[in-house]
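Record 1 of the preview.
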Amino acid sequence: MRFTKTFIPTVKEVPADAEIPSHQLMIRAGLMRKIASGTYAYLPAGWRCLRKIMQIVREEMDRAGALEITVPFVQPLELWQRTGRDVDYGETLGRFVDRHGRGNVLTPTAEEVMTHLAAGEINSYKQLPVNFYQINLKYRDEFRPRFGVLRSREFIMKDAYSFDADEAMLERSYRAMYNAYCRIFRRCGLAYVIVEAESGEMGGSGSHQFTVPCESGEDTIVYTEDNAHAWNIEKGPVDPLQKQDAARPVALVQEVHTPKVGTIDEVCGFLKVQARELVKTLVHSMGDKVVLALVRGDHELNPEKLTQAVGGAHIEMADEATIVKLTNAAVGFAGPVGMAEKVAMILIDPAVAAMAEAVTGANKTDYHLKHVVPGRDFPTEADNVRVVDIRNAVEGDTFDGKRLLFRRGIEVGQVFKLGTKYSGKLGAKFSDAEGVEKACLMGCYGIGVNRILASAIENGHDENGMILPISIAPWEVIIVPAGATDDVRLAAERLHAELLSRGIDVLLDDRDVRGGVKFKDADLLGIPVRITVGQKSLAEGQVELRPRTASESRRVGLEEAVDETIAMIKALKDMLHVDAQ
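->
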């Protein structure tokens, strides 16, 4: 490939709206261009990277026995209504009505349509197991797209769906995908960790998330100090705190006038207390039922843990009208005292149950209560009251007596055991050996193709540009002629032709520009190996060979340059086990 025959519009300036290195460098290196908020066009160099990632994904999925198909990007809304996920996704689900008045969605994931497809084709245990996968566009109407392709509206995803006859078969399918993911991310050059995860909107009984540790990541990894356990923040458990002993006999509940003071910070400032001394009473709606979730003022409610605590039912923050009707007060003044008889359920985080006393809302506009004792002034045990872990882990927490540590990360893939969540609702059934009809057990397995590239850049860059793994770089080698003489040009052309004939993915920078410009663009593009053909070194029968990760070049003979380059490429690939099939 010649630089003058492709299109690589590099730029010097950092884009004003690019917040993290991967976003900045993908624009600056000419990999992509923004079309609208959260949507991007991939230019030739960027598309080459993505195609290489997709090829790795295909090879490993095929190796694991999955079968590639493709399903529509536009899907009937009716399928989503049958599973209830039109409600679960809410405004994130892109929808439109066609000219015939039919509702459609722009698919963010494909459980519904894949299960619908299986329901029409699978009828016997002899057809199982089967695993269908696709690599396709997805769309989520993100409220605030940011961080380039890490939180975009449109993205490329590999999603696979296994259909199995029993738990043992599902476990084998799940493990095959788990192992395939390990190979995929290793071949892509990612240093990943595997954490236990919640299934979220996917549902199901088990999940693991593949995460690339990175300061720019939006996910939080929670792990024990001995590295024996790791979770994403939605799953991370905490040991219950010990019951606090009151420093003195606790006074009776006292109502305090707190005019126009409704937030945690405002209450702390007004009453001269710390956030850890407050209880947040968070009012939720679960269908036509009202549920209270109580967490300490310095803790954050974990929506996934809350969903698990109510058995996976759809639960969301109540609207203002519901809160006012329940409490007879403005929003910001809800509290647990006197509420057990008025709501369907109260879920109390163990940190709240352990408090000796607390400040809570008074269920009265502009008033709070002091000296509230859990168990005395509101129940911690009752038919509709439970103490259960519903908060995010924080610094200082432990699990199994081990200190919990935290780091940021980028999710690049996740595997789920779905069970019969979708097959039961959409009729994906089979007859077993005895002729008994059963719902297929399902697994779901997703990979963010764009996120692999962004993650590699986040952890592979310097002040000069990207440092890409050789398996996903746009080219393996770049040849830079540094000089305008015929000898330099002919030597560069010869190396280019010989490397191409040896199957090497090589870019020849044949532009009529200064050598300094070529060097800067070579580093910006992150191409793993650079061959520089200069007048002085060529006069001595040599060229300069430099890996992108090295600070200095080394001279090699012109006649040995191709073999030396191929040896360097092989060493870089061996580090990634790229050729391990």
